[in-house]
Amino acid sequence: MSIQEKETSNSLYRQWQILSLLGTGKWTGTRQIQESLLREGIDVSLRTIQRDLNQLAQRFLIESNKETPQGWRWKSDAPIQTLPHMTSSQAVTFMMVEEHLKHLLPPSLIDEMNPWFDLARRSLSSQNNVRQWINRVRIVPASQPLIPPTIDHHAQQIIYEGLLQDKQIECVYQGRGREEKSYVLNPLGLVQKGAIIYLICTRNDKSDVQTFALHRFKTATLSNQRALHPVDFDIDQYIDAGGLGFRIDSSKPSELVQLKLRMHDYDAQTFYESQLSKDQTIISLDQQQVEIIATVPFTSQLVWWLRSFGKKIINIEPIEVAQQVYEKN
Predict the structure, then answer these.
(1) What does the alpha-carbon distance between residue 169 and residue 57 come to, in Å, rounded to a whole number?
(2) What is the percentage of the chain residues whose pLDDT exceeds 70?
(3) H-type helices in 58-213, by residue range?
(4) How many contiguous H segments (helices) and E segments (strands) does the chain have?
(5) Residues contacting residue 244 through CB under 8 Å, at least 6 positions apart
(6) Considering only CA atoms, which of 210, 299, 306, 199 is closest in space to residue 248?
């Protein structure tokens, strides 16, 4: 490929990216377009972006608000054929992402995704059979549904950006005792559990991995310092080890126990259909009873869950688990 052909190819790719960043309602500024392109590895000046937009406006139904700095968008009467193409299956996927994952994405990425969410809605507007899929699919919690707590929008944006840019976060956090404390946090991951979103992180004054509920952040500021990571941290291993099940002793990591539950066979159907662990076994005993054996993290979540069975569980081992389950029953 000649130098001229390569430059033309790069220009086409850049302009395609610019078109994909524009929506049909909200104006998208050239500075915002530049930042989005930079995240994609395309480093160009505002002058180049403005020149591209002026060229694209001659061939596509996009418009400028004529302000300084300029904002751009697709015209309201732009037919779907003039927009970047999206298949029906892709459109359904984007709609599902917007419905169920939007609150877990950084605001800066949401701004980039909004044109695609808008395109997905437009793509499905004339496809009744595919659009009905969105209206017929729901996700409901397995436990008592709760209204999510209110999260400070600015603090949430800073936390998400800290995780995205791998930067430390300076914050004020309100604990369960309502006392507010200041921390410097190293973000490691985000996990949603039920109605609550948790930041997994380390504190600058401690090396152990901790969880902080997003709705308890009062303020947050993005630091210029790079986040410090534990060498062997793996978010999946952390979750599998019971990190989000909450520890019985907050000063110690969750330990694995070989849980043994004795129940009547007809009360144990849950365990035939959904296993507690990969090594779970079910042994038949006398009097139509069974014993379920599984290796699981010993967490407060396990204790709460076992309590929900009430008197259906005839016996629990080991004894330290049984003591926790029957402590308040």
Answers:
(1) 41
(2) 87
(3) 88-100, 107-124, 128-136, 153-165
(4) 11, 12
(5) 191, 193, 198, 211, 238, 301
(6) 299
CB contact at 8 A, 296 and 320: no
SS3 content of the chain, % helix, strand, coil (to 5): 40, 25, 35
Q: How far apart are CA 187 and CA 93, in angstroms?
A: 28
How many angstroms separate the CA atoms of 312 and 319, rounded?
18
C-alpha span between 302 and 196 (Å, rounded): 18
For all residues of the chain together, what is the average pLDDT? 83
pLDDT in tens, 252-273: 556 889 999 999 999 998 898 8
Q: What is the pLDDT of residue 280?
A: 94
Tokens of 120: 């997905």
> What are the structural domains, with CATH classification, of the chain?
3-82 (1.10.10.10), 88-136 (no CATH), 157-240 (2.30.30), 256-326 (3.30.70)
- Nearest of 320, 314, 288 to residue 302 by alpha carbon: 320
CA-nearest of 242, 258, 256 to 316 is 258
182 near 238, Cβ under 8 Å?
A: no
For the full predicted model, state whether its pTM sits above 0.90.
Answer: no
How large is the average pLDDT for residues 248-255?
A: 60
Could you report the per-residue pLDDT of 121-147, keeping only the tens digit for each?
776 766 666 667 777 777 777 777 777
Element (H, E) at 200: strand 196-203
- Residue 186: other Cβ atoms inside 10 A: 23
Comparing CA positions, the residue from 134, 139, 136, 110 lying closest to residue 123 is 134
Residue 186 amino acid letter: N
